[in-house]
Queue: 2 jobs
Job 1
Amino acid sequence: MNRAQLRPFTRVLNREDLNMGVADTDVTVTNGSYTKIAYYQVPAQQQIAIGAGLTSTGGLDTREYVQITLDDGNSVTYHGKIRIAYTNANETNIQVVKEERSDNISTASTVKLGETQNLRVGEDSYIVIYFNPDTSSVIDCSNTNNKILLPVTVYQ
Amino acid sequence: MPQPKLLSLKAGELTIGDALLIAVSKNITERVSAPIIGNATLFSGAVKTGLGVLLTGWIGGKIGNIIGTGLVVDGAEDFIGSFLGGAIGELVGGRTGGSVNVM
């Protein structure tokens, strides 16, 4: 494979991919601060851009939907602000790509997330989701009502 | 009205004045054609190149040359971009696409 040419394909990361699966450790989130609740480390020989699709000059919209639903176990959504970001491998550099309210992003087919232009993460860097809740809570990862569907574009 | 000296300067056979006109024409035809035939693909390259050759003959004169040259240059750019893709960025700056930052 010629590494000089990277070809993209789109992918959707779910919460299992993002280390927020049913077997993962619960996360305590505190009102007023952003806590990391999910993360994905870029594998070898790949670059990843958050988001997938774009709007063309002709008006064609191929952007894919993103959904992040955090549930309290009683089918009630935890509300707050959600940030989707890149970090480098040592998490010394964080670049937020999107900040959204749970009111929007917890609903399916509501928020579109087009491919982030001009910035990707490479091998060993991370895609991270942070949550700043309106009320301090504990995210129970084993709760099957939690849902993350994060479209990304993988270059390899 | 005589052309300013700067616009009469040549690079090869092409004057700067003509080059500017070709650039304007290329930009216009690229934007107009993109929703119809796309851009930076083999298909768009083929269509633009063929159309450039045809329009040079149909319109004729300097205007035909300007428009035709703009289309052919744009078409050739689409061909090369399609084949080489990120390779040009790798050769020049070591990054794919040339303008993408990677953390």
Note: Residues 102-105 of chain A form the longest helix (4 residues).
Job 2
Amino acid sequence: MDNNKTKIIVIGNGMVGHHFVESMLATGEACEITVLCAESRLAYDRVHLSEYFSGKTAEDLALTTGEQYTALGVKYVTNEKVIEINKKQKFVTASSGQSYIYDKLVLATGSYPFVPPIPGNDQEHCLVYRTIDDLEAINRSAKSAKVGVVIGGGLLGLEAANAIKQLGLETHVVEFAPQLMAVQLDEAGGQLLKDKIEALGVTVHTQKATQVIEQGDKCRYKLLFADGSILETDLVLFSAGIRPQDKLAKDFNLALGERGGIVINDNCQTSDDDIFAIGECALWQNRIFGLVAPGYTMARTVASQISGGSLTFTGADMSTKLKLMGVEVGSIGDAHVKTPGAKYYGYENQVTGVYKKLVVNEDQKKLLGAVLVGDTSDYDTLLQYALNDIDLPEFPEALILPQASGLEVAMTELPDSAMICSCHNVTKGDIVAAIDTGATELSQIKQCTKASSGCGGCAALLKTTVDKVLETRGVTVKQDICEHFAYSRKQLFHIIQVEKIRSFATLIAEHGKGHGCEICKPTVGSILASVWNDYILKQDHQPLQDTNDTYLANMQKDGTYSVVPRIAAGEITPDKLIVLGEVAKKYQLYTKITGGQRIDLFGARVEQLPLIWQELVNAGFETGHAYGKSLRTVKSCVGSTWCRYGVQDSIAKALDLENRYKGLRSPHKIKFAVSGCTRECAEAQSKDIGVIATENGWNLYVCGNGGMKPRHGDLFATDLDDKTLIKYIDCILMFYVRTAERLQRTSVWLEQLDGGLEYLKQVVIDDSLNLTHELENQMQDIVDSYQCEWKTTIENPSSLKRFRQFVNSDDIDSNIQFVSERSQIRPATDVEKQITTKLIPIVEV
Amino acid sequence: MKTTQTNLTTNWQTVCQQNDLVNDSGICALIENQQIALFYLKGKEQVFAITNYDPIGRANVLYRGILGCINNDIVVSSPLYKQHFSLVSGQCLQDEKSKVTVFETRIINQEVQVKIQVQQKVA
Ligand code: SRM
Ligand SMILES: Cc1cc2nc3c(=O)[nH]c(=O)nc-3n(C[C@H](O)[C@H](O)[C@H](O)COP(=O)(O)OP(=O)(O)OC[C@H]3O[C@@H](n4cnc5c(N)ncnc54)[C@H](O)[C@@H]3O)c2cc1C
Ligand code: SF4
Ligand code: FES
């Protein structure tokens, strides 16, 4: 064995133990990690455990798999409960009898549900709510049950109650205290929550001490309460709090807190320097943290400590926001007004069922805590005031009164250090940095910062923050497309057109600086194509194109490409269908019908593309421009030729339109559809350009969008004849091509156009700018200069030179490997690439 | 019994001709079973060479990225997920932990050469 590597044993593979493994690997430290876990499965998302009852499977909840661990070099043993720690000789022994040596030991044993010592608590249908196994047991038990009782009215108890209600049981919650969620809420908040939950059909019994669980008369059991009352039930679910799983620490003499919990210092070290404890089993400054975010911070702390870093754990905020059976509840900081001198403001609305309380310090300048029931829309704002010590407005109550616009204030004032996602330690500054490096979409920001991929609680805050940061830039920051040009796309378009610039080199020499980048190059490439419609792989233009445009195909995750021939309007002859099938078979391509009514062939290596296209072009196919920011498809319905309701020939119209605008380069992709009657089978109203047949002609809808932010198209004009329809579309599209920003779909463009739809109608229908003639001419030039890029390419030996993997060898990229799934190929995973017998042999064609 | 020993030596290897390079763009060469992406920055008449494997996208694609400059650093942007890799240091600008290997290059008599470590088997 390699002696240089630190041997790390992790006991427990809950959320925190797993996060530790990930954090440790991320440090790059040479180490050998072994995970020992008592559960039968590896880490899963306990926070979203309840979703198991709304359809999620154990696989959906899994945070990792054995395959992944193995691929990362992490050893693991499931069903392996550790029962002994030998601190002196540094090994642990598990229930299987196996021993494991460690240099560093990490206890991530979590906690277990506390079951109050009530006689009869150990019967078959008395259960707890913590693991997937528990949930399976509840499921089984509920099948033969009518009534269920949850003992404990805290946060988890209510979640459990919701679960058994979803399973169709008559549901009761029994709480010993006078109110629900006594930790997080005050009396008034607890009362409102109780009313709301009862209104949903769950019976809440407060101030009830259960004394014994006996055999029932009507049900399986009956609970006898201290006040003499009785409740019959078939199922008992204990949710009376959690206790740190500290037995190992106790048995083998690590320091424990008075009421349990493994004592740790700021380095998360226990009383033995080589043993760490993290997550719910750890006790820091006499506190247990029963949430994932603090546990994750502890995990990162230990990874840093072991790899020689200096991260420490300095406590965590325990504020919570949740939705219980559809009731919104939030609690921040000092909810119980315990800080000396603290005062509070309250707002209660019995009509709408909203309760809000603000706890402020003595001079009313700072927010100490808050309680929100029924409406948590202010939670993010308030939390930021509390966490970042932001000065409250002059009248703090404005923050909780209806119509308060507190959010605006807080977001822009947030310091860069403000914590946005505590699970992954992402601050506002990190988000700003991500945006600075070019991430402008929420999804990109999530991907590069990991924000919002833990408990998910910060999703709304993340979105508002991103929106705000982007918004402030939109207003104050210039519209420069990148560091090389101090112009917006619209301005560049104007320069190119007016100065008749035909190459990137000229443009950057005269109007920009540096060598360009992946933002300005494709933008300029697209503008040059819109204005001059040159072959896009002309030598000068080639380096401007994104890989998809360079290779006239769409790159897939493994570096192969997809091939999408144009199938205008979705109409295809049997002969052509057969060609597609034959080509796919010959080159072993995966085939699929796309969402755009055509056929996509996947898995082509770069050097195969010209061969494949040669065959397709020979058979009469043209490029489908699936790779370009250009016209994609014109979707059609079958229309009056076949359909008994159709009033016009929608297929012929769709074919006309697709053939007219194919090849048009634009700021973003453009999609059309044509429906043969108002039943709208082609979904035209969700397209950039939508055409719907009427008895008298065509209705034109504009600027619809599917995708991430769907938008219904706006009705632009009605009952148009064929000629006017084309004239309007020419003008609308060309005006869009000239004035939209980079990667702006028509939907967003219209929404940001000053004057909106009315203005667009004035420009196009009333010709208010005296421009339509020019727009139409420009479009006609594009239509007239159309060429199939693939045809041009295969006829041009120097272009073909680009389509090879290696300049100096005919070998193929050996990292591209496929396995078989549902009788077709799919890319092999990293692990599958190791198992050579599973791989499909690559045949040379 | 025969023993085989492996020695590492550094060597200039000719990869292709100068006119195989594509102005302001990339090509890929296979050297000693290693995929190397070569970029030709026309303005500076300079060739840059890095490993072709994108450590984030996990595929051999870097030569198909767009060449550019960010804060005066010459970079390629991955065609898969757009991260920038410095052609000078190999560092990924968006992810501290990701790096590609950089090779020295030169053009001699129209021949593009890359300096590379080769394994020599010594019997
Ligand atoms: C292949 C296809 C999925 C399929 O198997 O059906 C597909 C595949 C891709 N879509 Fe799509 N979209 C496909 C139909 C759609 C549709 C449905 C439609 O066109 O009716 C939509 C919603 C309609 C719309 O666009 O309004 C759609 C909305 C998107 C979006 C979101 C656009 C938006 O405005 O929100 C993206 C992302 C983007 O463009 O930035 C996207 C991006 C992509 C990309 C380019 C993502 C990427 O970079 O790899 C995929 C590559 C295509 C490829 O490799 O060939 N795809 N995509 C469909 C190809 C249609 C075709 O024949 O050309
Ligand atoms: C229904 C539910 C909802 C929740 N909702 C939220 C929420 O919205 N937000 C939030 O922040 N938190 C929430 N939590 C709490 C959150 O799940 C916990 O804080 C977190 O899972 C703790 O992680 P952990 O790794 O410390 O412990 P655990 O997840 O308990 O993992 C410990 C693991 O160690 C194993 N183990 C114990 N002893 C041994 C041993 N001797 N040998 C080997 N293995 C051992 C256990 O079997 C277990 O698998 C929720 C919890 C539940 C149950
Ligand atoms: S939109 Fe109208 S014509 Fe077209 S298929 Fe549907 S019902 Fe028939
Ligand atoms: S706070 Fe948990 S995912 Fe962001």
Note: Residues 5-122 of chain B form a domain with the Rieske Iron-sulfur Protein fold (CATH 2.102.10.10).
